């Protein structure tokens, strides 16, 4: 189910940010894939969201809001580009009076009085885009189940499209990057990817063991086991990293040293993370705390702390290198 796929949810947030703040080529709305996403992705996602219980609905309302935003921008873009044939072709998923339509999803979401005002506003804007003559701002009517059927809405500006950044693409790109960096779901996925790289290095001993290579008796691919002639352990890699940092402490280009500190920091952050979420050491269970302390002590024995302090002392405060050198 898409609602259980973390990557699918992150993709919805990502596309929503892109369409909201970047300049869009009108040719985009002519592409079949856009309408496949609308029909096969967004419509079912919204109906799946509405089938959830109250708790999961509240938890995933930002995802539903992002899905509504994507649907609204696609439909509005097609309207402005004069693509009535495309809209009519997909009228069943957009506007038809059926449970599966996006318009019906907007109305059903608007009835849930326990959701945040943000998603209510997004549902209202999407409904106004699909059917301008339909108003969700009617008197409060309570259904038999106790949910509010309609609620007084917030008055919207005459321009229902919201702010436009088309006149200043660079500002739009900057805003998009800022929103992307602030999105906790995307950042969580990126952190997990960094953990995967760190784990690869941590398990280098298993992947470079010549005995393991010999037992396999076949060409070894990097994705499985490196075809190494000597066994290289995580400790060997850390020692090499420390030597490199100390030897290149005064280099103008800090890129490689920043990457090294990134790896070392993620090694510690990974040790004190739960389900990909970083935790403070005091919140860890005893066993996990011991493992975190073991890794921290290991880095200290291999000279990482000394290398970090040298980098902080020899470079300007607040720079990229000193920022990354502040290990977890």
Compute the separation of the termini in Å: 36 Å
Helix coverage percent = 55-70%
Largest sheet: 2 strands, antiparallel
Widest beta sheet: strand line-up: 1-2
Structural class assignment: mainly alpha
**Beta-sheet strand percentage?**
under 5%
Approximate shape = elongated
The average pLDDT score comes to 76
Query: For the CA atoms, what is the radius of gyration?
Result: 26 Å
Order of helices and strands: HHHHHHHHEEHHHHHHEEHHH
The number of helical elements comes to 17
Low-confidence segments, given as residue ranges, are 138-167, 217-225
Number of E strands: 4
Topology:
Blueprint: H1 6-21, H2 32-50, H3 54-59, H4 61-80, H5 84-89, H6 91-94, H7 102-110, H8 117-130, E1 141-142, E2 148-150, H9 169-182, H10 184-202, H11 204-207, H12 210-216, H13 234-247, H14 255-271, E3 273-274, E4 277-278, H15 286-301, H16 304-314, H17 320-325
Antiparallel strand pairs: 1-2, 3-4
Helix pairs in contact: 1-4, 1-9, 2-4, 2-7, 4-8, 7-8, 10-14, 13-16, 14-15
Describe the 3D structure.
The chain is an all-alpha fold. The protein contains 17 helices and four strands. The chain has helices at 6-21, 32-50, 54-59, 61-80, 84-89, 91-94, 102-110, 117-130, 169-182, 184-202, 204-207, 210-216, 234-247, 255-271, 286-301, 304-314, 320-325, and strands at residues 141-142, 148-150, 273-274, 277-278. The strands form two sheets. Strands 1-2 form a two-stranded antiparallel ribbon. Strands 3-4 form a two-stranded antiparallel sheet. Helix 1 packs antiparallel against helix 9 (169-182) and helix 14 (255-271) packs antiparallel against helix 15 (286-301). The longest helix is centred in the N-terminal third of the chain and has 20 residues, at 61-80. It is elongated and about 70 Å long. Residues 138-167 and 217-225 have low confidence and may be disordered.
């Amino acid at each position: 189910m898409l609602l259980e796929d973390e990557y699918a949810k992150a993709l919805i947030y990502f596309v929503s940010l892109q369409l909201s703040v970047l300049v869009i080529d009108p040719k985009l709305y002519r592409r079949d894939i856009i309408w496949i996403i609308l029909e096969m992705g967004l419509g079912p996602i919204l109906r799946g969201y509405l089938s959830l219980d109250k708790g999961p609905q509240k938890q995933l309302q930002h995802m539903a809001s992002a899905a509504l935003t994507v649907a609204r921008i696609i439909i509005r873009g097609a309207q402005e580009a004069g693509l009535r044939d495309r809209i009519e072709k997909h009228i069943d998923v957009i506007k038809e009076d059926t449970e599966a339509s996006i318009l019906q999803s907007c109305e059903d979401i608007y009835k849930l009085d326990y959701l945040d005002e943000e998603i209510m506003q997004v549902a209202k804007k999407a409904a106004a885009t699909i059917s301008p003559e339909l108003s969700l701002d009617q008197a409060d009517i309570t259904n038999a189940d106790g949910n509010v059927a309609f609620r007084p809405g917030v008055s919207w500006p005459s321009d229902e499209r919201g702010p436009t950044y088309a006149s200043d693409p660079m500002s739009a790109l900057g805003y998009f990057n800022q929103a992307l960096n602030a999105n906790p779901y995307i950042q969580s996925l990126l952190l997990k990817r960094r953990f995967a790289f760190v784990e690869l290095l941590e398990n280098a001993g298993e992947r470079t063991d010549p005995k393991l290579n010999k037992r396999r008796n076949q060409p070894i691919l990097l994705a499985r086991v490196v075809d190494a002639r000597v066994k290289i352990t995580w400790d060997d890699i850390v020692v090499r990293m420390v030597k490199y940092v100390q030897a290149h402490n005064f280099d103008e280009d800090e890129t490689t040293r920043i990457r090294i500190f990134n790896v070392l920091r993620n090694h510690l952050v990974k040790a004190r993370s739960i389900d990909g979420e970083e935790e403070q050491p005091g919140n860890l269970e005893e066993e996990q705390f011991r493992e975190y302390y073991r890794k921290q002590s290991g880095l200290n024995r291999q000279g990482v702390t000394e290398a970090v302090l040298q980098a902080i002392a020899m470079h300007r405060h607040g720079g990229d290198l000193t920022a990354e050198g502040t290990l977890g």
